[in-house]
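Usage

Read records sequentially. Each one opens with the input sequence:
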Amino acid sequence: MAMIYRTVTGIAVVLAVLLSGCNSHADTKDPETMYDIASELKDISTSVQGLVKYGNGNELSESNLILQAIDNDESRLEIFSDYTLRVRVDGQRSSVLLCDDDIALIEDSGCTPEVDLHHWNTDVANQCSFVLNLDKVCD
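and closes with the structure output:
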């Protein structure tokens, strides 16, 4: 009986280790890495907001808006290579969302001095969708 208990316990421990290693959301929670990424995202969201408010950002696709925001310097996107960047335009306001698969990590409007939402730093894995109320955040 003790042998069966040890085997079952051993299998449970191995499964727990393997499953925790497969959780990409857990891997992305390294604060130093995430704050570096957030800093770069802030620069892009501010540029996107400038294009939307003062330029032709409303007329551009998401990818073209991001490229124009970084002056077509694709090397600035390398830090985001393992993630998905999304842009939302709402009138003269915008926000940029960084996701890992379908999990939101960081969301930022370009109209505030600090990064608006660090989804990665919460206990809940949020879906990759925009949640900022730009009317409230940008006023």
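Summary fields computed downstream for this record:
- The chain has one domain: 24-137.
- The helical segments are 2-22, 24-27, 31-54, 62-69, 134-137.
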